[in-house]
Amino acid sequence: MLTTYQEVRGRIYTLAYERDLRIDWAETTPLFRLLLLYDHRQVVVARASVPVKGISVRALNDLQADLEHVFGKDWLQ
Length: 77
What we know:
globular
């Protein structure tokens, strides 16, 4: 499983590009960034909180579950 913010962000960008999705970082806090993914019609297809600091297994599991319907099962592995 990916464990750093840079690794997770890189995987999100790669998978979004492959699926022709646009990424928008809607909000940033010291611990999380709010991610919105848009399809070609500019409709939000996914929303997730991406952990930035103090990344826990629970936060990664929540992130994986939030984006599974877009990126597929075990996309974070």
